[in-house]
Amino acid sequence: MTRIAVFGDLHGNSAATAAVLDDIDTYAADALYCLGDLVGYGAKPNETISLIRERNIPTIIGNYDDGVGFDRDDCGCAYQEAGERERGQQSLFWTRAHTTDDHKAYLRELPFDSRFEAHGLRVRLVHGSPRKINEYVFEKRDERSLERIAVSAESDILVFGHTHKPWTRTIAGVRMVNAGSVGKPKDADWRACWVLLEITKEGGAQVVFRRVEYDVALMARAIRETEGLPDNFAHDIETGGAAV
Q1: Quick one: pLDDT at residue 201?
Q2: DSSP element (H, E) containing 125
Q3: What's the mean per-residue pLDDT of the chain?
Q4: Which of 38, 47, 173, 234 could join 223 via S-S bond, C-beta 3.0 to 4.6 A?
Q5: pLDDT digit string (tens) for 57-83?
Q6: DSSP character at residue 60
């Protein structure tokens, strides 16, 4: 059996990231990969990036990594209301201003996707979808749309993030896995989320979602004490994205 750990959407939450890496270590995974969005929303972008770089973890680029790394004026997020959009822009500009040039250069070099095989199964990792870095692939999306995405993946297992909501289904013969979010879950569970893929020599695949507790109060306090970051982001990590 090959064990592959996948996690993403860290969003400047260094405590959650450290806790997830510690949890992954207990499973003795054969490989681990990061789905990107290391920065944004949280108050610890440099510390979070450092945790990934120190371990040389293969990482793909998220839309927020792109926005910060290239100093763009938009993070590629599809905000639904004006207040949310304004807070998102505050987060982008604050993170751009406080992420070091060295870390920005690292973010710019991250690839769009990652592909590998395990016991004959083709695995592809993307941030949003195989088509776009910032496409939201929700479980309840139109079935025909999900089928088109599955086929476009050209893989047997497709792992992605971006929505911050974990789920898995087999669609058009492709095992689709949303790894959830380490640093900013949106499924009303504040605990950090990562996924373990267990692939057998016979070509079977089991998907195990892990939830990890961490010092959320510390990270929430860091946001509230940081000028330029809205307190809403602290509430988001404390409640797992539950409405105010």
Answers
A1: 83
A2: strand 121-126
A3: 95
A4: 234
A5: 999 999 999 999 999 999 888 887 888
A6: P
